[in-house]
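Action item from last week, closing it out:
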Amino acid sequence: MNWDNIKVFLAVARGGSISNAGRELGVNHSTVLRRIQSLEDELNAQLFIREPRGYTLTKAGEQILDSAIMMDQDASALKRQIAAVDEKPSGDLKIAMPPGTCMNLMPIIADFKKMYPDINLLLDSQPSLHNLDKMEAEVAIRLSMEAPEHYMSHQLFEMPFKVYGNATYLEEIGTIERLSDVSWVCYDLPTIDISMSEWLKSQDPKTHVSVSVNTLALVKQSIESNLGISFLPIHVAEESPSLREVTEFGYSFDFPVYLIAHRVLYYQVRIKKFFEFIKQNIHRIQGVSKSVKAT
């Protein structure tokens, strides 16, 4: 059975369309169709039904989905095991770390680079566990309410968040007594069980969400543009003289920031050295609650 056909099958099943699968795999529309047709011919079964909303699995497609996922996981595990053979602190080190949660990590990372000049650092701004699973990154730094299972992780610090708004916007609103008295900019993290918009509406069903974004940089820009108020890390808000803390609600949260790697890859020398160096130097970051937790 052709492994490329299985990869395309999984991409269509995940994305729900030929175009989404093509974007994920970096191939054109006709290649995806050809691969699916080849797999269906090989299995002598129709795997998808074309519907107005996209592609859905047939019963035959559902039957092979679990096996295809296992094949994909086995292939990824094999890549990780091979990568873990490396014994020298050199080569590429791919780190997924969102700009808003980096705090002052860059000077620490720069010092790590000076100590290990043969390690080539590659930084990615999308810190999802999917990156680690697919070998798109080897280390991730991300916000999470708890340590992710099945990974080597270390809680670096807790990042304090408060509610901020543009001073001009707050002056126009005037008196604020309820969440629904203002518009909100929502930043939803896949690592937190409940979305920000759901949480706000659970506090006040009339809460109005003006815009939802997926990066802290966009939260800050949206607040500065008077689209509403939102939670921001204190150090991010202090970068903008136009922002003012909204104290009427009394909200303040500390979100844990974790350093994460696959358990198999963790023992690769350059990854272990990076973990150790960050943990030893994290005390240099000011304005956060330090953690002594490790997993």
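Closing note: The domain at 91-153+257-289 is CATH 3.40.190.10 (D-Maltodextrin-Binding Protein; domain 2).
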